[in-house]
Amino acid sequence: MTQTLQTPATQPAEPVRRRKRRRTDVPEVTAKAQARLGIALVTPLLILTVVFLLFPLANALYYAFVDFNGLDPTPPWVGADNFTELAQDPDVWAALKNNVIWIVLGTIAPLAIGLVYAMLVWGIGRGGAFYRVMFFLPYVLPPVAVGVVWGWIYEPSRGWLNKALEAVGLDGLTRGWLGDPNTALYAVLATAIWATIGFVFVIFLSALRNVDVDIVDAALLDGANWLQRLRYIILPQIMPVFLMVTTITLIGGFAVFDIIFVMTGGGPADATEVLGTYAYSNAFQLNRISYGTALALVIMVLSIPFAVGLNRLQRRLSMQGTTA
Amino acid sequence: MRISPVKLLAAATICMVATACTGTSSSPGGGDETQASGPQTIKWLIEEPEDAAALQALKDHIATFEEESGHTVNVQTLPFENMRTILQTQLRSGEGPDVFNWGSGPDFGGALAEAGLVYDLTDAYEEHGWEVFDFAKERVTIDGKVYGIPGEMETIGIFYNKQIFEELGLEAPQSIDDLQRAAEQIESSGAIPIALGDKEGWEGGHYLSMALSSIIGSEGMEQLFNGEMSWDSPEVVQALDVWNDLHEEGYTSKSPTSVDYDTAIAQFYSGDAAMLPTGSWLVGEIDDNADFEAGYIPFPAPDGQGIFTGGLGSGPYVSATTQKRDAAIEFLDFLASDEHATWTVENLHTIPPVPLDTEALEVSPLFAQVLEDVAQFGQGGDFGHNIDVMVDAELNEAMYNGVQAIFTGQATPEEVAANLEAASGS
After folding, report:
1. Which residues in chain A are contacts of B26 at CB distance < 8 A?
2. Which residues of chain B are within 8 Å of residue A56 when distances are taken between CB atoms?
3. CB–CB of B115 and A72 under 8 A?
4. Tens digit of pLDDT for each residue in B180-213?
5. Homologous superfamily of A91-323 in CATH?
6. Is A73 within 8 Å of B200 when comparing Cβ atoms?
7. ipTM for the assembly
8. Which of A193, A264, A291, B305 has the lowest CB atom count within 10 Å?
9. Do B137 and B79 belong together in one domain?
10. What is the largest CA-CA distance in chain B?
11. B312 vs A68, B18, B179, B306, CA distance in Å?
């Protein structure tokens, strides 16, 4: 028997979209009231955006194209000179190199350690709250306080890091951690990683609670080891969250300033200078406000592609996750 | 005509952005017609003192002015490191302090005066008969106009622990060789010879200033600032080399670039270190905190005792835009008075650059010595210069980084001197 597909000829075709409602369908008084309400609702956000985003951005753009020393009320227009100079400034490239080190290590280390911590605590029943608090605590401490305390830890003669090394017979490793150009950046970075792990840990732990445990158990029965379960079962399920955390830590690497400023001030002899501290020292110590502003704009421009790219990837994975 | 709210908002946005693009260009000035009369509240901005008790003592002392004048003085403080940025911003906005304490020299009060942000006090000097040592007055004079009252006189040298020196049978060093021999002996005894902190960087400016002043003398320093001597001259290299040698021999705190100023001081107070190169501003704290007798000497020269490095601290200026000018000048008259000068010597252990009878003052032996040394400073004695108040920010930055680079082995004294010369040209 042959089946034929028949289309009812008499039934009119469904319109693809509903016709757009004409304005005349709404009474004019109501339309105006709706418009006023809309404006009233949008106005606060618009004002905040203008005052705290557009205004400073326009101001920064203006100062990047003049030569302002912090005092002259009518700074001369210099066009793109500040940007030309920073492209040829070897200190900018040295600072950028430190930023890259910071971004790579400062992103990978907290993600890896935070994930491991989260995985360990994920399976804990009793006492889980204790570990959550303990691991998260460093993140809520003010960066200035963290920097000061770790500065004491790294202090060459009385700091406990050197004392501990001496106690276990590793005297040869003792040094002025923040004053040695070979270790200063990594010592500050280690502090920053310590302070960031708590944030990464808590977010990952929340994401892990949404992982389908049945699939994990099934993989276990199939003989998948710990690493295989992580790679093929767990990570794909928490990937949107993973990318969100990556974005936050990575962008933080471009804009890093406070902890370096507190712990080393960019020294010794610029060894820990990053773009943020270099912009600050130019703007506020050398009175080169315009050059510092141009540097700040470059930091922003450098970080935007990463933020946008990771955000799009995260959104795409989220969509895949919901449609799967 | 009705304008839609959307258009109004768009117009407001454009206006704000356009305003941003014009920069903040409120020009200082303000005519006399805006001046207030009668009792006023004066905003006085000063650097945050290291000792909270000193701030309270100062406020209590200012109360005598408030009672006599009817004015109120609102004392505000800022950490030194934030002072430049905030002060400049406030003064340019016209919302700044009426009176503020700030350093003298081209990179401090000089820059503000050239920008028209401070009030010309030339007439006030004549009217009130303020007496200030000539050398100090020159530091706050630009194009014949006097813009401020110079701050306290300070010297930079080496404090030493007399107890440690006596125990080791040492005399205060009379030459660089002496200093190195003493350091060697102190190091052998297990103590740190020289407490050296250069984590912040600015301390390096003082280290170079004191060594260089003793090597080339006050005239040599003047030649350096006038451009008659280059910054990469053998004498500058020699001064940097002195510190390089002391550090390489292990006569300084371990890793000076890891040690901040306060920690270096603590090493001296605790007796862990025998010498502390810093300024006379620390005398009061040494008297209060050290349980040993301290001496104070200039950094030695290659062939002799050397000279102290002299400098001026922060002194009061009047904002060009203040609407309380008369009250502000009345307050300055109080700050320039003999009574206030005597009070600061006795209570803050600072020495104003004014002729002062110090014989009747009750002070510690260490401070009495500093008073005696500084008295020669005021009377035209031979003193070196603190480099960082005499040069611009660019050269200071090169100096701070350069001395740090020597302590970390990142650069040789010759390379640092070459960088200084390059920065002086820029």
Report:
1. 73
2. 20
3. yes
4. 999 999 999 999 999 999 999 999 999 999 999 9
5. MetI-like (1.10.3720.10)
6. no
7. 0.79
8. B305
9. yes
10. 96
11. 28, 44, 27, 20
